Amino acid sequence: DIVMSQSPLSLSVTPGQPASISCKSSQSLLHSDGNTYLYWSLQKPGQPPQLLIYQVSNRLSGVPDRFSGSGSGTDFTLKISRVEPEDVGVYYCMQTIQLPYTFGQGTKLEIK
Amino acid sequence: QVQLQESGPGLVKPSETLSLTCTVSGGSVSSYYWSWIRQPPGKGLEWIGYISISGSTNYNPSLKSRVTISVDTSKNQFSLNLSSVTAADTAVYYCARGRGALDWGQGILVTVSS
Fold this sequence. Notes:
By secondary structure, chain A is an all-beta fold. Helix content of chain A is 0%, strand content 49%.
């Protein structure tokens, strides 16, 4: 199985400040079709996860542009340019290049 | 926008079969891949499996011998069956659209207990 490792596992950020979450995979997520199958989701307290970004850097419709994804191969980053109170929750990365699909452990974002 | 809603019993006895249904609205169950994902209380996410547009399935090997995912196009639903459950199967079960989980249901807590 591909192991997805996130860091940090928790972070506390002052509103208006940036935040960055790393996700590293044990194998490359670059497919022979040219796509990289890395996704980012946010699970707000008491809610199901919601997909934010697909294939490394593509924001879903309605996701604020303060969220951005980058990376390649085995090393990926989710950045929030200016954290807002509604961004609290647990962020997960996920790979769908190889079965079984696997998730990172999650990164809990709190507001200072 | 596609919406999903899980339904089924919230309590299942050990060794019995957990059966859940996901009702899809705002889209056809015949048009997408559909996934099941679970989350034990206070823990992270575990992918269970998916069913494709053609009806083929792929399951997590850790559950493969116990899992079946199927689609009922007449009801615009898809289902999860997990047999021989134990307390370790206690979790919130989510249905989702696509292999990348573009849309999620609200989730249903299933407790395995006698």
